[in-house]
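Exercise 7.
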Amino acid sequence: MEQQDSPPLLELKHVTKIYGGGFLNSENRTVAVNDASFIIQEDQPRIVTIAGESGSGKTTMTRMLLGSVTPTHGEMYYRGKDYRKLNRRERRQFQLEVQPIFQDPFESYNPFYKVDHVLHAPIKNFKLAESKADRDRMVVESLQMVGLQPDETLGRFPHQLSGGQRQRIMVARALLLKPRVILADEPVSMVDASLRATILDSIQNLNRDLGITVIYITHDLTTAFQISDDILIMYRGNVVEYGDVAKVIHNPQHAYTQLLIDSIPQPDPDNRWGEIVRATGTEMVGTGRQTDIFGIDAEGERSYEEVEPNHFVLRGGIEMDDRRAGEHTPAEPLQPDSMNPVSNPSLLR
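Solution. The predicted structure, written as tokens, is:
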């Protein structure tokens, strides 16, 4: 008898999220994510970037993976079971295995508590330690894993630490629960450039040393290229291009991907913003392709062309704004996304 493959750890299946609208106001609505699919396999830990400008849908996609936003259409599965039908024990296990790291670490802290609180709370809530000594050992080990010295970190209030220290404490908090997936939403956008390399190195270590899949949400393609295995480019709620990060960055096929890459600052004053965008539209021609590690179905309503192995581009279905399809000016540069932290209260209470 052949052994059946285990179901994916997480799966979004043709999910759409619509905000606004309603019975009396059906026209005033925003499609944040449009018919997207995504698969996270437990036995294939990778670093996957979801990239795009503000409003592209990347944060909404992440919130759906976190379970804090319910899709308007489509399904989310955890270990093969509909997320909405999880019982209490299964939902608790989900909270252990899927952990967030938010953009602004300062807003994840209660300023009246010392930083020890955010480390002790999940241990207490999930009954991870049998004694105070066991709890303290777990806290020390998690801090050391992210390059922090416990004697220089514990016992302080959030405002007494640097932004980089606060962010790494949140990474340490996530590690306490031994997650299988970490959703990192713009984790380095609020820290100094000198600290970004340290935090990015910590994220890579999570994947390489602990086998944790990291979903890295960013608008910055330079850091995405530095740490990621794969990348999804989102525009107007649609995944317009995806695949191996080196192939997508070096050989961008969609007009929006080309624009994002062209927006990366160049150390050349003669290189004008937008002049290397080669797009005149986004209509793509090809035969389509079945599925890949992201679980996007090219035989369904959404059609993707495989331009090279593990590199896919949306064929038709969405046009770029006029201001982005031809000549560009630096008047409207791409802006980083900002997100109000959404967290399960039981993890930080």
